[in-house]
């Protein structure tokens, strides 16, 4: 009789760590995080969701864990209603565009939005409590900056959000009030400035 054996080596691979892992086939991701606020207003924070599919998705009763103040369930932000269009964005902001450096209308302004500048992991869940996406590690933010203010932008929405290599500092001012070198960098409700 003949016997076959095969040995494979895997080298140079990077594996991300998360408390929870996304549901298969999910199409909505956490795409951009403004954890540092704006010049003169550290509370001018927001998070952008992006729909990678061509179909609209109902976000009613979806939750972003750790996006709010406090800890445990009190730190969760619930989306009471709303739809994200295919290939479109959904902006969750602490402030409206008149009181913020964003120049677009947010889709949701929860009362408890608060991001820890030292870092935290955001977990997006649907109304059935399934994990749809996870952004950042469990400690320091992978990207973004306080001086000058830069958001944390996802490089590829189809790649794991718990990999530090899939995030970068914002490099453009699309959807922001002004665009000078010391002004806030970010792309709310617009494609990331890759």
Describe this structure in words.
The chain has strands at residues 28-34, 46-51, 57-58, 62-65, 77-79, 83-84, 89-93, 122-125, 131-135, 145-146, 149-150, 152-154, 167-169. It is mainly beta. The model has no long low-confidence stretch (mean pLDDT 89).
Concise synopsis of the structure shown:
With 194 residues, the chain is mostly beta strands. Helices cover 0% and strands 25% of the residues. The chain has no helices and 13 strands.
Can you give keywords for this protein?
single chain, 194 residues, mainly beta, 5-stranded antiparallel β-sheet, 4-stranded antiparallel β-sheet, 25% strand, globular
Q: Strand order, main sheet: write it out.
A: 7-2-1-12-13
**Order of SSEs:** EEEEEEEEEEEEE
Beta strand count: 13
Number of helices: 0
Layout: helices, strands, pairs:
Blueprint: E1 28-34, E2 46-51, E3 57-58, E4 62-65, E5 77-79, E6 83-84, E7 89-93, E8 122-125, E9 131-135, E10 145-146, E11 149-150, E12 152-154, E13 167-169
Antiparallel strand pairs: 1-2, 1-12, 2-7, 3-6, 4-5, 4-8, 8-9, 10-11, 12-13
């Amino acid at each position: 009789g003949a016997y076959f054996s095969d040995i494979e080596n895997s080298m140079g691979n990077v594996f991300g760590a998360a408390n929870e892992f996304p549901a298969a086939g999910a199409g909505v991701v956490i795409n951009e995080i403004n954890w540092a606020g704006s010049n003169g207003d550290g509370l001018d924070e927001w998070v952008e969701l992006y729909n990678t599919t061509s179909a609209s998705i109902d976000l009613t009763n979806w939750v972003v864990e750790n996006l709010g103040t406090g800890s445990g369930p009190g730190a969760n932000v619930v989306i009471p209603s709303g739809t994200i269009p295919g290939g479109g964005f959904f902006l969750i902001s602490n402030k409206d565009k008149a009181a913020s450096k964003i120049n677009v209308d947010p889709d949701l302004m929860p009362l408890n939005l608060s991001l820890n500048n030292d870092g935290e992991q955001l977990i997006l869940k649907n109304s059935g409590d399934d994990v749809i996406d996870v952004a950042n590690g469990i400690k320091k933010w992978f990207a973004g900056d306080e001086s000058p203010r830069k958001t944390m932008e996802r490089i590829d929405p189809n790649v794991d959000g718990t990999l530090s290599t899939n995030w970068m500092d914002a490099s453009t001012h699309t959807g922001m009030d002004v665009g000078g070198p010391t002004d806030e960098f970010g792309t709310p409700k617009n494609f990331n400035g890759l």
